[in-house]
Write a structure and sequence with these properties.
2 copies of one chain form a homodimer. The first copy, chain A, is of the alpha/beta class. Chain A has a single domain, classed as Rossmann fold, CATH 3.40.50.620. Chain A contains 9 helices and 5 strands. In chain A, helix 1 packs across helix 8 (172-182). The longest helix of chain A has 17 residues, at 41-57. The interface between A and B is large, with 44 and 44 residues.
């Protein structure tokens, strides 16, 4: 089984991918990014999930939180990073996604992950983009991912790194289904776009998450402010 | 004439591109990156060149230096960023380039520039990669640049940004020729890979630069330690 560098946000998708990769026998290094996101609590969740997983699986997981705020302070046109722009309260639509998009965020974060993987001689970067994402954000769509894979292949000829996005054709409900089978402790994950100790229950990502559990005939174990 | 975001290292290629774009009537924002490069003096050169150019052309140029050290501290397998690995003293060969390559550096820096351009509604990112570069480093080659352009087009559908590399088919000597015609003050530029106030005159980029002036039947105005 190979070593994989996982982009790990602390949300339920990347937590499920972490557990899937470990269950499949891979060795995993995790990286999280502090990009000044309003939902900075997700980084705390990320750390807690790593600690829990290390204990549960009796292994060490190398986890770095990388400060990319000096970059994203210049890319503050999104409600995720600019406190002056409100996070919308409703289900995802293209118009809503346009308010929350951080331009080119995924290409930036994936490029960084690829550079780190190449320096560590790790041959794969895993990323938990899923079908719900790619139908909305341009930089989560399959065309983008395929193109980025090719760009990355050309860029890393001397230290080949492949990008893999195993959930790209799965819905959020499919991910929850897989995670429940794997025993992922979803109570430790955090998806909400808003600040605050409790997830809001009303922003697009909370709404999508709650629904994903309902579609699996169960309830999200998180406590929400409004539910 | 359109607005362009220029990746500006303080070296002679990007200085020439700055003067070319301004002479062609474009409005230019410049960004430089502090990635912990051993040749940090290039950032001082970058600032001096901007100040000189503003005075000479009687205009303001928005210039940001972006701290990306928290990223590149994790990508320290190169002699450009790791003080424990010596910079070679000779002409470029593939083996030499493999020691100085910072894995995926250009994709990372270009992705960041694209994100900033999108947030500022600037439609072009300019980058001074040239024929000398692309024959050696994978992430300077035309195949890589073409693929990155397409990935960027797909990523920025909502805020289209195009990457342009107008020197990609020019040699260093061609760039010097153009810069001399434009009146670029090359004495303010810095190319050396080593630390220190004076450029060394012996590292691959010093050797390449000195030769480019010779090929134009003139001498590099810089003072070198050894020449």
């Amino acid at each position: 089984m190979s070593k994989i560098l996982l982009i790990f946000s602390g949300g339920m998708d990347s937590a499920t991918l972490l557990w899937k990769l470990l269950t499949d026998g891979h060795q995993v290094d995790a990286i999280s990014f502090d990009y000044g996101q309003r939902h900075i609590a997700e980084l705390e969740s990320a750390k807690q999930m790593i600690t829990y997983t290390e204990k549960n699986k009796n292994m060490k997981i190398h986890h770095d939180v990388i400060d990319v705020k000096p970059i994203f302070i210049h890319i503050n046109s999104s409600s995720l990073t600019n406190p002056d722009i409100e996070v919308p309260n409703c289900y995802y639509t293209e118009d809503i996604a346009k308010i929350t998009v951080v331009p080119n965020r995924n290409q930036i974060l994936l490029s960084i992950a690829v550079g780190i993987a190449a320096a560590r001689k790790i041959e794969k970067v895993a990323y938990a983009a899923h079908a719900g994402d790619w139908s909305i954000y341009p930089d989560c769509r399959t065309e983008f991912m395929e193109s980025l894979k090719e760009t990355t292949r050309l860029s890393t000829l001397w230290h080949p790194v492949e990008i893999t996005a195993p959930f790209i054709h799965m819905t959020k409900a499919d991910i929850v289904k897989q995670g429940l089978e794997l025993g992922v402790p979803y109570i430790l994950t955090r998806s909400c776009y808003n600040a605050g100790n409790l997830s809001c229950g009303t922003c697009p990502t909370c709404v999508e998450r709650i629904e994903a559990f309902k579609l699996n005939d169960t309830t999200d174990p998180l406590n929400y402010k409004i539910h």
